[in-house]
Amino acid sequence: MADTIIELPAYARSLGIKLTGEEEAGMPVLRLDFGEMVEGRPRHFHGGATAGLLETAGYAALRTALVAAGRDPVMKPINITVQYLSAGRSQASHAVGRITRLGRRNANIAVEAWQDDRSRPIATAVMNILMV
Amino acid sequence: MTTPAARFDARTASQWFFRHGHTGWLGLRFTDQGDNWVELELPWRADLIGDPGREVLASGPIISLMDMASGMAIWQTRGTFAPVATLDLRVDYQRPARPRASVRGRVECYRTTRSAAFVRGIAYDADPADPVAHVAGCFMTIAADPRQEVPALKGAVGLG
Predict the structure, then answer these.
(1) For A92, A105, A128, B127, which has the most beta carbons within 10 A of its beta carbon?
(2) Structure pTM?
(3) Helix, strand, coil percentages for chain B (3-state, nearest 5)
(4) Best residue in B28, B74, B84, B86 for a mutation probing chain A (most A CBs within 10 Å)
């Protein structure tokens, strides 16, 4: 399963991002609990912490797809666009990435984050990642 | 919280902003400001790397740096501290930061309306002319938590 082949970077582990062991369409679902380390305005997620969760989930999805394809390139970020849809409240957030396109040199990934209701995302991101 | 009589000043506000929460954990520091811009620094720290093979700050904390500098640039421009919600933030990575380098984020608020504010900025490690990233963002003012204060806004796009 995806968890066994994915290792989160130091930043993600420091912030408290965890692999849940759950998957969605074969991609790992990540979780970030609420706490002071992610708090922006009182009792809400800082937008940067939410973005960090989204980006980490995007990389985890891409790594999962690359391992499945027998590839092990270096991944370099090109850009990320984060859309904030709803305030992140003082409870756990989850995120999962979906590979929109996996090319030879470039991957386009869509990521969603949500809290208690999977059908109501609190933020989404689109990422372009270069692979060399 | 009562509205302070003095004009918002990013330098002064930084003494409070970075004591707690996410930006406190990151250790953000105030470095400079102008009429419509603010610059903050994200100090190098080994547990914030993104790639185990390289001693380079991850992109995640750089987004946090730019998001915070964006909000403060808006307050600096408006002269008042009113909570803002990020609607959209785009980061274009130009190159990795240098090994063990701190990164500074300088963001200007180039336009405000009654309810929206638009920002753009750069993240750099040594030379502002050779940035690590460019950012662009759009923010919306919120009087308070709209889910509690304005029931009619509950579920509204962008505010939740």
Answers:
(1) A128
(2) 0.90
(3) 30, 30, 40
(4) B86
